[in-house]
Amino acid sequence: MHNKKFLLFLLTGVFLGFIIGGYFPHFALNVSFIGELFLNALKMVVLPLIIVSIANSILNMKSLESFKNVGIKTFFYYTVTTSIAVGIGILTVILIKPGEGFPLHSENVFQREIHFSVRDLIVNLLPSNIFEALVQFNILPVIIATILFSLAVLSIEEKRELQLYKLISELDIALLKFTEWIIKFAPLGIFSLIASKIASMGGAKAIIPVLYSLGKYVMTVLIALSIHAFLLLPLIYYLFIRKNPYSYLGKVKEALVTAFATASSSATLPVTLKSVTSAGVKRSVAEFTLPLGATVNMDGTALYEAVATVFLAEAYGIDLSMTHYLTIFFTATLAAIGAAGIPEAGLVTMVLVLQSVGIPQEGIGLILAIDWFLDRCRTAVNVFGDTIGAAIISR
After folding, report:
1. Which domain CATH number covers 380?
2. Other C-beta atoms within 10 Å of 265: how many?
3. How many domains is the chain built from?
4. Which of 362, 387, 297 is nearest to 333 (CA)?
5. Which GO molecular function terms does the record list (predicted)?
C-alpha cells in the first residue's frame, strides 16, 4: 500500500510539473532550486553507494570463481541487449525514414566541438588518479578500480576476519538508510525538475512548435524505444524467469518514473536498487549488476544514437551503404558503453558514431531542441534494461 501511495505521489509530481511548467513558467523557475537540491542529494549519495555496493556484493561472494560466474553472465546480457537495441533502432529508422524531406539549413546548425575516440575510452578505463576520477564523476574507471580492489580482498582467505570487510558491510547498511531518506522527497524533486525544464523551454507555447517540426523523428525514436522496452525486454524476461514481465515492470515503476524525471541512470540508482530488491531480486546481485549497468548498459542510448545518426544522414542527403549501417551498429554499441549515466551523455558519445560514417557533427544542433525529452525516455529504457538484467542474473 505504501508503494502504491508513493507511486501516486510520483505521477502527480510528473503531471503537475508539465502543467505548472507549461502555464506558470515564472513560478516554475522560482521553485527550480527544489529540483536542484533533490538532484544534488542523489548525486551526493551515488558515488559512495556505487563503490560500497559493488565492494560489498563482491566480498559476499564465496570465491573468485563465484564472481566469474556472475560477472560473465552480466557482461554477456549487457552486450547482447545493447546490440539488439541498436538493431531495432536501425531497422525502425530505415522503415520510417524521418529525415527524408528534412534538409538541413544553416540556421539549424549548432557547432559543437567535442573530442572523443575509442583509444581515449580504453585508456581511461583505468584511472591514473582515483580521486580525480571521483571528483570529475567519471564513474566507469571508479567501478573498474572498485572491482579490482574488491577482488584482491576476496582472494584473501581470511577476508571475513578483516575490519575492512565489516566496515564495508556496515557502510552499505547505513548508505541504504540514507538513500531511503532522500527518496522520500522524490515526488517534490521530480515536480520541480520537470516544471523548471518545461518553463526554461518557454512553456507550452514553445514546446508545441518544436514537437511539430521534429514530430516524425520523435515518433521514430519513441516507436523504437517502445518495441525494445515493451516487447523485447519483457520477452527476454519471460524466457529466463517464466513469469509475467509486465507484473515485474509494475514493481519497478518507481525507478522508471524517477529515471524519466532525472534523465540520469546513475542518479536513479538508489531508487532502482530499492525497487528491484522489493521485487524479489537478490540484494547481493542487485548491488553488483545495477551500479555496473547504470554505466555500461545503455540500451536506450545505443538505440537512440543509431536512429539519430541515420536521421541526420537522411537530412543531409547522405546515402548509407550496408557497410555504413554495420559501422553504425558496432560504433553505437561501443559508444553507449562509454556513455556516462548522466543527463545528455549520449550527445557526447554520438559524435563518435557520426564521425564513423562521415556525417557532420554540427548536425547534432538539429536535434538539441527536443533532446531534453528524448533523453528522459531513453534513460527510462536504460534503467528498465538494468532491472531486467538484475532479475535474470539473480535467477
Report:
1. 1.10.3860.10
2. 33
3. 1
4. 297
5. symporter activity
Of 179, 212, 159, 228, the closest CA to residue 42 belongs to 179
Residue at 205: amino acid letter: K
Show the domain range for 225.
Answer: 2-394
Please tell me whether the overall predicted TM-score, pTM, comes out greater than 0.85 for this model. Answer: no
Helix 32-59, helix 186-200: angle, nearest 10: 130
Nearest-angstrom CA–CA distance, 290 and 297:
9
Q: What is the mean pLDDT of each run of 10 residues along the chain (395 residues)?
A: 69 86 90 87 79 79 78 86 95 91 49 50 78 77 84 81 84 82 83 83 71 82 96 96 94 92 84 92 87 83 92 86 87 69 60 77 69 87 95 89
Cell 533502432 belongs to 89
Nearest by Cα to 373 from 11, 17, 6, 10: 17
Count CB-CB contacts under 10 A for residue 11. 15
**In terms of C-beta density within 10 A (0-12 exposed, 13-18 middle, 19 or more buried), how is residue 131 classed?**
exposed
**Distance from chain centroid for Cα 126:** 22
What is the C-alpha separation between 132 and 149, in angstroms, rounded? 17
Contact between 271 and 186 (Cβ < 8 Å): yes
